[in-house]
Amino acid sequence: MSDPERGFPEAEHRRRVSALQGEMAKAEMDALLLTTPPDVHYVTGFLTRFWESPARPWFVLVPASGDPVAVIPSIGFDLMSKTWIGDIRTWDAPHPDDDGVTLLSSAISDLVPERGWIGLPMGLETHLRMPIADYARVAELSAPRRVSDATAVIQRVREIKSEAEIEKIRAACRVADAAFARVPEFARTGAPLDGVFRDFQVALLQEGADWVSYVAGGAGSGGYGDVISPADARPLQSGDVLMLDTGAVRDGYFCDFDRNFAIGKADDAARRAYAALHVATDAAISTIRPGMRAADLHRVIVDALRAEGATPGGGRLGHGLGLTLTEWPSLTPLDRTELREGMVLTIEPGVKIAPGRIMVHEENIVLRNTGAELLSYRAPAELQVLE
Amino acid sequence: MSDPERGFPEAEHRRRVSALQGEMAKAEMDALLLTTPPDVHYVTGFLTRFWESPARPWFVLVPASGDPVAVIPSIGFDLMSKTWIGDIRTWDAPHPDDDGVTLLSSAISDLVPERGWIGLPMGLETHLRMPIADYARVAELSAPRRVSDATAVIQRVREIKSEAEIEKIRAACRVADAAFARVPEFARTGAPLDGVFRDFQVALLQEGADWVSYVAGGAGSGGYGDVISPADARPLQSGDVLMLDTGAVRDGYFCDFDRNFAIGKADDAARRAYAALHVATDAAISTIRPGMRAADLHRVIVDALRAEGATPGGGRLGHGLGLTLTEWPSLTPLDRTELREGMVLTIEPGVKIAPGRIMVHEENIVLRNTGAELLSYRAPAELQVLE
Lengths: 387, 387
What we know:
2 copies of one chain form a homodimer.
Chain A: H1 10-26, E1 31-34, H2 37-44, E2 59-63, E3 69-73, H3 77-81, E4 87-91, H4 101-111, E5 117-120, H5 132-142, E6 146-149, H6 151-158, H7 163-181, H8 183-186, H9 193-206, E7 211-221, E8 240-250, E9 253-254, E10 257-263, H10 268-287, H11 294-307, E11 311-312, E12 318-320, E13 327-330, E14 344-347, E15 350-354, E16 357-360, E17 363-368, E18 371-374, E19 384-386
Parallel strand pairs in A: 1-5, 3-4, 5-6, 10-19
Antiparallel strand pairs in A: 1-2, 2-3, 7-8, 8-9, 8-10, 11-15, 12-13, 12-14, 14-17, 15-16, 17-18
């Protein structure tokens, strides 16, 4: 399989905008204000690591009809000019007195009638990437226009991936698959965990990641303590379970899955936990269908783990995936989001083995009309032992 | 030189909190609400790449006196427990109906008197990392307590680095120095730019980066077009100027500097541009003193470039550095921030060589009582040609 071409054709971006405008019409919004890297990327195709600098806000306005308008720091003009966006308005940022406030407000006035509504993502899993004092000024300058919550507008559109997007996530998954296959080269008894994390990142880059936005994991005797700590210098020991998890990025899209390995040997509890996770993942993969709710799939996983005699971990057991490492919905008992054809999801069961010892397993899928299609290469059914 | 130990002693965190509380007292704030990775890390020592997931908000409250309180998703409890923070309150996030809102509001009620003030960073270079609708609910639930802008509180404290912080930034700079020294191994005529970016990231990891949050650059005949575009597959050609810029991270602290290389040969315009940048950087390094304003240093750089017959680039010509790739202040004509002893800064002059061709040079320094101390290893005075 060859990698997909970089970027997207203009037609794909136009379809996205048109889908957003359809949702905006239903919600009676006259413009959508977007400020975060994934939202701006989704609409414009503007892809850069420069977001790492928190210094400057960036804005894209999607009007009720017609093309989006970018209101951005002048340092981004050249790169934005290479996208399909024609209306690009810039200011010299950071500006201590007016960091785009007047320019953004004026663009809002151009696009939104005085009695109109500005849609802004304000709900779960969103944030506003601009100074909140400046937001208050923009709202004031835009009055009598009002602001309403556009979380559902952006989420119902972004959560359904196009085939082109799915190919990009698949390409990111292939990178991680290839890097996971190389873990036996560097993870062995005596190797310090921080060195393993480093070697794994190198492998991800060498296998085709543009950059590695996320690597996490853990290692401990028969299981690990948590999955978000940075690596320490403790050497791997025989009997450890090592987990590596990655969000490698290729052309702006993430994979997000993990693999577990036993170092030297695996005890029965670890083997049983691994087997239960594998069965529960299979259960989710074979059961998931469009029309189920996120909470339903959570229930499938929990039930499968319990049927295997395992103790399910808390927290969410999977989530959306795409332009960011994690997207909505969340596989939790409370998330009633409908699972729909075209969603890309992680299936991520976790179990508690003993106090302070857990194990987590993760695969990436796309939900088709008929069920799950794997994007990651299915992990082996038995815990792999690295000699 | 050996690397500094990981993390900070509790005493360092207590000094930071005490400095924040001193500024809070002057600003008459009864608690400080922090939500971003660098602010949370600064106060607590909580370091994780898990912030890459935008799903969950995280909160730290610094009271007017006494120890901070962490109000965080339960997935972070274990890691937060390893820090010096004793009061950790958790909820199962993401929660569709109440994603920490009640818990945070209740913590605010515990710490802030009814007629008191909650400080929140609201100004330039800040953002609120939580859903804005939830923020509105927190503000409502916390009434009659009021919110005021704590941008200056956090910035005046964070901008002065301790010796322990300076050592961490120095360690990150050493990583980048060593990786830049290896650029001749992989950057040559015919090498595609995206491969060079990839090899450079590998070198950064191999030389000791924990992770590579930022790599940018450019390449073009006699100069490059911009400095924020991702790399394309165009092979380097003889006469190209290649620039690589990095924010490599070690123990949570960034470096941020770049290096320029000529591929095969360099034309006179490129050599002159490079020389002017070098002279302007020297001018900034030798002139900077505590008590100057950011705008004053911008002026020094622009004047030095003009004296060399070069055309200064727009935008900022340097900035703060530390827990993020870029921090305030900004070396612009408008930034009146006082430069103070203990600030870590980038000196980043840029020139326009021709339409669509620029060159940018960058070094990292710490401002001492007597002037600049280099943290990066000073770039050579002449543009290095890679054969």
